[in-house]
Amino acid sequence: MRRIVLKYGGSSLATIENVWHVAELVHDVVRQGQTPAVVVSARGDTTDELVATAERFSGAAEHTAALARERDQLLACGEISSAAQLALALRSRGVEAESLTGAQAGLSVSGPHGSGVIEEIDASRVRANLDAGRVAVVAGFQGTNAHDDVTTLGRGGSDTTAVALAVALDRARCVLNTDVDGVFSADPSLVPDARLFSTVSGDVLCEMAFGGARVVHPRAAELAQLFGIELWVRNTFTDRPGTRVLSGGSSMIETAPAAHAVVHDGDVAYLSVHPLGAEPEPGEAGPRELVAEALAAAGVPADFVGDTRLGADVAVGLAVSSSAATPVAEAVTAAFTRAGRKVRVDTVGSLATVSLVGSGLLSRPRCLADALAALREARVIPLACTTTQSRCTVLVRDEDTGTAVRALHDAFELDARARTDSTLVSAS
Ligand SMILES: Nc1ncnc2c1ncn2[C@@H]1O[C@H](COP(=O)(O)OP(=O)(O)O)[C@@H](O)[C@H]1O
Ligand SMILES: N[C@@H](CC(=O)OP(=O)(O)O)C(=O)O
Known about the structure:
There is one protein chain. This protein has eleven helices and 19 strands. It has a nine-stranded mixed sheet with strand order 3-6-2-1-9-11-12-10-19, sandwiched between helices. A six-stranded antiparallel sheet has the order 14-15-13-16-18-17. The radius of gyration is 22 Å and the shape is globular. The chain has two domains: 4-246, Acetylglutamate kinase-like (Carbamate kinase), CATH 3.40.1160.10; 255-414, 2-Layer Sandwich (VC0802-like), CATH 3.30.2130. It is of the alpha/beta class. It binds adenosine-5'-diphosphate and aspartyl phosphate. Aspartyl phosphate binds at residues 9-10, 41-42, 47, 78, 140-141, 155-159. Residues 9-12, 41, 156, 178-180, 183-184, 186-189, 208, 213-215, 261, 263 line the site of adenosine-5'-diphosphate.
């Protein structure tokens, strides 16, 4: 029988009553004859509290490797505690269960502390538990690196643990249980009449996740797509079936509607990188390469990486998540210094990105024109914008986020329109 991985996010485990409720749900699955692997996040706001605790000792702007190591040791405790609590609740109900840290569950991770990536999973201990009819409760969001040090996977990373574990358990079915009914055409907390998708294609979900739709972590969406994992997103607190993520894209070539969803990321900073001093000689690294190198070294994805004019020595602008602003600014300065060049990096915070997710957006220039007109009518000033075939992203002031999301959702009729393309995204 195909195995099943159930993931419960922090919102599903916020109170002790919630932990008992999740134990009851897992017990139901066991009663139906399946022994699940269960991946848990830290309860409620625990990770935010642990981040704040770490900052009380080290300060938000300090980024030495040693501090990053200790911070990861601390943050990982949230998930470890959660796993132990759920295992205790299961055992009290008479369900055999063992909680496992990321290391005990065999997750090997590489990359910097705070943004590790899963190299491989030795799932033998998880398997041994499942084979013995014992629920394996795995602490999400963490693994150990080549030095046996705990490394976390980045905020929201428990989704990635769950999908990676599903891959390691011979492509188990993976169910992400959260506090909303599934994947919607926009964040339902901002757009109350957003449409619930009964199915969504994996490539649309990847774009939504990368654009900030918190409901699934971007790397989890990518992994599920890459390995063909059967992925579901559903509500811990209702019996509704949720959203099924379909691997592959649309079978409709030119008739599929262009826009599917509007997503936002409310935690963005814009960095302007100004090279100082002499222009680079031919054969020397210019500012674009040095910025790209710095982003790669910091392991940070960025939007709007671009400059204002043609030439070898231009100011480069880029948008990153607020928490990455200081490390990226430091990495840029270090890359310029190594190249024997001087630089000034200016940071503007309190920004957000709002993205229309769809298909053929670049080849249908009307989409960008309509999006910008909708923002103008809503009196939102776009600070920058960039378009690919699958995502049209606008940088706005943080306080304009809700207005911008609702304006685009309305303009592209994402709530009302009856869709016939059930292979792409379909209304339930
Ligand atoms: N397009 C979307 N569809 C569904 N939920 C979304 C979307 N965009 C943002 N969200 C938000 O994602 C939240 C769930 O993610 P998160 O808080 O990380 O849950 P968990 O604690 O289960 O990991 C929802 O409460 C919802 O507000
Ligand atoms: N607890 C971590 C990891 C995580 O995945 O959480 P959640 O599943 O609640 O989004 C965080 O808050 O980032």
